[in-house]
């Protein structure tokens, strides 16, 4: 399990290192710049600073994960949660350090002086890829199949069911009940429903279209990014359904610890690999679209609306979803009441998924 944790941390680090390449070239590390400045030395230096810092954080996190092999099982479980957080913290600090250099050069050089800008219009609904329903149907069917098997085998399930397992064995038990047996499947169904809801929102809600010096190129890149986002959400829903269904069945039938640990290691690596693979598959199309030359109007300098280059807060902007500045996908406008509502629903769904099994048990 320790080696699986190290591999997951390594894959996460690789994904973070790819983030600048997947982002719009006119917002390096979340800083608005004119298209004419995307090759400026300050931009290259800032991205390099981010990558060096993130690479260092990845190495440290992987070493910590591997070193945990010599620790007790519970300490290994703690390290499995700490290592990704350590990596994300290192990447965030590296991002802010790289952003500072780019912002300083932009301000000192007055990069937007004499630049023509244009506010992006909302993308029409017909220009967006449809939400795929087959993966979500498959995910639901997998969960339903697991529920059916557990129903048929209910009398064979022991009186006490493992609820939490680490390398040393079972650390928490629950009495056999409908909640303890079927609770994990309800969690999986909640995650699939929330994932489908996000995909549906991406398809239905107006999304800002940014010119970035070449409206045609920007539109092509935006469509490619939307398709990749839909694929990631769909793949995630199926992966979660398989993981939850397998874990719930193995735990209920009191499978050996080695089997549980092997299943956990394999599924964690598989989930990360599926997401990473979906991103890599869309990388070429996104980069080809972004590489189209152009000298049209630039997107406006709206750094003031982006907190730390990550959170979009604009009460005067009616847009609910806006393209992320780091990586691909969308983020909500936290200055919009509907955006705040969407965020609250997602957070409540995450809390429900984490607490529902314990409440039902």
List the uncertain runs: none
**For the largest beta sheet, what order do the strands appear in spatially?**
1-2
Based on CA inertia axes, which overall geometry fits?
Answer: globular
User: Ends: how far apart?
Assistant: 27 Å
Structural class by secondary-structure content: mainly alpha
Largest sheet: 2 strands, antiparallel
H/E series, N to C?
HHHHEEHHHEEEEH
The tally of strands reads 6
Radius of gyration from the alpha-carbon trace, in angstroms: 23 Å
Strand-residue proportion:
5-15%
User: How helical, in percent, are the residues?
Assistant: 55-70%
**Helix count, per DSSP?**
8
Describe the structure.
With 361 residues, this protein is mainly alpha-helical. The chain has a domain of 115 residues. Strands 1-2 form a two-stranded antiparallel ribbon. A hairpin with a 6-residue loop joins β5 and β6. α1 runs antiparallel to α2, α1 packs parallel to α3 and α2 packs antiparallel against α3. The longest helix has 38 residues. It is globular and about 75 Å long.
Map the helices and strands.
Layout: H1 2-22, H2 41-67, H3 73-109, H4 134-152, E1 160-166, E2 169-175, H5 178-204, H6 215-252, H7 257-290, E3 306-307, E4 311-312, E5 321-323, E6 330-332, H8 337-360
Antiparallel strand pairs: 1-2, 3-4, 5-6
Helix pairs in contact: 1-2, 1-3, 1-7, 2-3, 4-5, 4-6, 5-6, 5-8, 6-7
């Amino acid at each position: 399990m320790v080696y699986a944790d190290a591999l997951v941390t390594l894959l996460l680090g690789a994904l973070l290192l790819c983030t600048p390449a997947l982002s719009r070239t006119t917002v390096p590390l979340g800083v608005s710049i004119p298209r004419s400045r995307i090759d400026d030395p300050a931009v290259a230096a800032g991205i390099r600073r981010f990558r060096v810092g993130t690479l260092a954080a990845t190495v440290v996190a992987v070493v910590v994960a591997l070193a945990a092999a010599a620790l007790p099982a519970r300490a290994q479980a703690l390290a499995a949660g700490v290592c990704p957080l350590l990596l994300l913290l290192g990447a965030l600090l590296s991002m802010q350090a790289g952003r500072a250099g780019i912002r300083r050069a932009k301000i000192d050089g007055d990069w937007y002086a004499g630049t023509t800008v244009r506010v992006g219009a909302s993308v029409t609904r017909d220009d967006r890829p449809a939400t795929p329903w087959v993966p979500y149907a498959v995910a639901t069917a997998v969960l339903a199949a697991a529920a059916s098997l557990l129903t048929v085998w209910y009398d064979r399930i022991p009186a006490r069911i493992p609820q939490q397992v680490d390398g040393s064995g079972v650390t928490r038990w629950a009495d056999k009940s409908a909640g303890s047996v079927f609770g994990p499947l309800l969690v999986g169904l909640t995650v699939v429903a929330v994932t489908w809801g996000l995909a549906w929102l991406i398809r239905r809600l107006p999304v800002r279209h940014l010119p970035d010096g070449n409206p045609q190129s920007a539109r092509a890149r935006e469509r490619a990014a939307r398709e990749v986002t839909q694929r990631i959400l769909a793949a995630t829903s199926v992966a979660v359904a398989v993981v939850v269904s397998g874990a719930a069945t193995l735990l209920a039938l009191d499978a050996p610890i080695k089997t549980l640990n092997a299943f956990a290691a394999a599924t964690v690596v598989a989930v990360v690999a599926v997401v990473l693979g979906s991103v890599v598959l869309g990388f070429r199309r996104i980069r080809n679209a972004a590489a189209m030359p152009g000298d049209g109007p630039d997107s406006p300098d709206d750094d003031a609306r982006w907190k730390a280059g990550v959170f979009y807060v604009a009460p005067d902007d009616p847009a609910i979803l806006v393209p992320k500045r780091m990586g691909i996908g969308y983020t909500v406008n936290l200055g919009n009441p509907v955006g705040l509502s969407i965020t609250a629903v997602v957070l409540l769904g995450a809390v429900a998924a984490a607490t529902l099994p314990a409440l039902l048990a």
